[in-house]
Specification:
The structure holds 2 protein chains of 2 kinds. By secondary structure, chain A is mostly beta strands. Chain A has strands at 3-5, 10-14, 19-21, 24-26, 32-38, 44-49, 60-61, 72-74, 83-90, 98-100, 104-109. In chain A, the strands form 3 sheets. In chain A, strands 2, 5, 6, 9, 10 and 11 form a 6-stranded mixed β-sheet that branches. In chain B, β7 and β8 (73-79) form a beta hairpin. Classes of the chains: A mainly beta, B mainly beta. Chains A and B meet through β5, β6 and β9 of A and β10 of B.
Chain lengths: 110, 115
């Protein structure tokens, strides 16, 4: 079954510390993976797509097919990074639905 | 215009009311989605329209009725809702081509409270 697992419900770090939000997936075939972020009282925003291999707001994520992971990393966390982060996978069948992880709430403390 | 817009931002309704949520995008996207999101939870898919045709209905109760009048507009008609239907209702859109990654872009949502 296709599944996205975010093992940490809450992650708390200090400003300037490195942060890693974990995402593991279960999928047969080549996955299309995303990270979305939802700041307080703001819309759900696309942060990263694995096919783009880009860095947004200092965040990067590398697809590791061997470990079936797509962890989100940032070397130096900022207070404005505090938000809810969702990892998601597209079902590449006909319906192409997004399969979501349960989310990780990141708190960056001063 | 590179955003998905939703109106109203907030809606309070009684269980006997009829109301509608509206979603609009002018990015040329051909797929549009309705999601329901409870606090601190991921969005739950309700409906998908692809090329103005309903392609997915995730067994949503009939008190929710979607409508796609054209490729830019998506409505969600609400009737006889229950208090447990109170949530943030999100609209999203995507390009929906056969070869590209189908990235979904979200609107700000309508915060619905059913009394």
């Amino acid at each position: 079954a296709q599944r996205v697992t975010q093992p940490e419900k809450l992650l708390s770090v200090f400003k300037g510390a490195p942060v890693e939000l974990k995402c593991n997936y279960s999928y047969s075939g080549s996955p299309e993976l995303f990270w979305y972020v939802q700041y307080s009282r703001q819309r759900l925003q696309l942060l990263l797509r694995h096919i783009s291999r880009e860095s947004i707001k200092g965040f990067t994520a590398d697809l590791n097919k061997g470990e079936t992971s797509f962890h989100l990393k940032k070397p130096f966390a900022q207070e404005e990074d505090s938000a809810m982060y969702y990892c998601a996978l597209i079902n590449a069948g006909n319906n192409r639905k997004l399969i979501w992880g349960l989310g990780t709430s990141l708190a960056v403390n001063p | 215009d590179t955003e998905v817009t939703q109106t109203p931002k907030h809606l309070v309704m009684g269980m006997t009311n009829k109301k509608s949520l509206k979603c609009e995008q002018h990015m040329g996207h051909r797929a549009m989605y309705w999601y329901k999101q409870k606090a601190k939870k991921p969005p739950e898919l309700m409906f998908v329209y692809s090329y103005e045709k309903l392609s997915i209905n995730e067994s949503v109760p009939s008190r929710f009725s979607p409508e796609c009048p054209n490729s830019s507009l998506l409505n969600l008609h609400l009737h006889a809702l229950q208090p447990e239907d109170s949530a943030l209702y999100l609209c999203a859109s995507s390009l929906r081509t056969s070869v590209s990654t189908d990235t979904q872009y979200f609107g700000p949502g309508t915060r619905l409270t059913v009394l």
